[in-house]
Structure formats: C-alpha cells, structure tokens
Amino acid sequence: MKKITIFLLLFIVFAEYAKAEQLPDNNNKFGIGITYDFNSVVTDSLKPIELSLRYRLNNKHTFQIYTPLALKKTSIHNSNETRKKTFYGIGVGYDYTFYTYSHLNLFTGLDADYGWYNNQWDFHRIYDVYDEELPYKTEDIYLYWDKIKGMSISPNIGIRFSILKVTTELKISLPITDFRKKSYSIAKTRTVHLGSWTTWEAYYPDKNTHDLSVQSNIKFNLSYYF
What we know:
Blueprint: H1 2-18, E1 30-37, E2 49-56, E3 61-75, E4 81-101, E5 104-129, E6 136-163, E7 166-173, E8 176-191, E9 198-203, E10 209-214, E11 217-225
Antiparallel strand pairs: 1-2, 1-11, 2-3, 3-4, 4-5, 5-6, 6-7, 6-8, 7-11, 8-9, 8-10
Signal peptide: 1-20
Protein name: Secreted protein
Keywords: Signal
C-alpha cells in the first residue's frame, strides 16, 4: 500500500508540473519504457519489472513489445541452502486512447504474454565420514525445482500524462492466466577422493497442476519517445 501511495503522489506531482510545460510531441513514434508491477501473476514474492519497446502510430493507437523480468535469491543463514526464484517472459500490447485533454490521456487496451517461472532450491554440503578404516569426505548435492509456464491475457484501463517526449501512466488490469506447473529434483552424492557421482532423479506427478484464474494488477510505467 505504501508503494502505491508513493507512485500516486509522483503521478500527481508529474501532472501538476505538466500544466506549466509544453504539450507532448506526438511526432516521436518510437519509445522505450520501464514498468513496475505491484502484483505478480505467478507468486506474490516476485514483483516483475517490464522493459518495453513502444511504437506510437498516432495520438490514438500505441503498440508495444515487452519482457517481464524478476529475480530473487536467498541464502539461508548458517545453512547450506540457497533458494532462487526467477521469472521472465515475452509479450505484446496495444492501447487505444479514447479521451484526451491537454497532457491527459485515458486509454484502454490489451496485453498478452507468455512467461516462465522457476522456484529452485539448492542444497550442497561436504562432510567427514568416519568408519572402521580411514575417514573420508563425502559431497552431497540436492536440487529441487518448481517450474511454471503459461500465458496471460490482460485487458486494462489507465491514465497517462505526457510532457514533450516523456510519458508516465498508471493502469489497472485483469490478467486471465493459464499456467501449468511441474516439479522435479536431482540428488547427487560421491566420495570426494574417488570422484564419480551417484545420481538420482525424481518427479512429483502429485504436484503437477493446471490452473486457470482471473486476477487483478496495478502497473506504473515511465517511457521516453525519440
């Protein structure tokens, strides 16, 4: 909630500043942008950043190609565990401006993207083993993955302010998602001085899921046209 409040305040400041500036220059067709997602269609622990390339056909129609990206890595203190979550994708979007007044635009549109999410858990340790003969070292590696992939289609509505070559927008979307999840793991162990690994692979069909859902999201975008 605090982040939403901060972005709304920035949005208002931007609008007030725009009153004293020149009107937007719609002759600049191509733009690059960055978007912050307040929610994630996959997991609440990741908030993707979208990098986009935009094409403004005219003052009504805007097209974009974008890629959502997110990474979160956690090392467990006093442990041999590491957890890493990643999300990436590719998408296209279109919006239509149905109302314009000075620097203000109201628009509606549709975004569609395909994404891949990995939740990886790594465990690695080397320890001494004592038996009746000489002690030796053993190395264990355990890797576990939850993998999710699928499509999201997001109708949206938003408000945009423009100053010369810069635009900022806030939009609300309703992503309709179709995701499939699979889980598997790999375990490896070896006696260090011997070098050869013993490996096991495991699959978890009971964790496989296919989910269809409708969610809500808020996005904040900043773009520059050239």
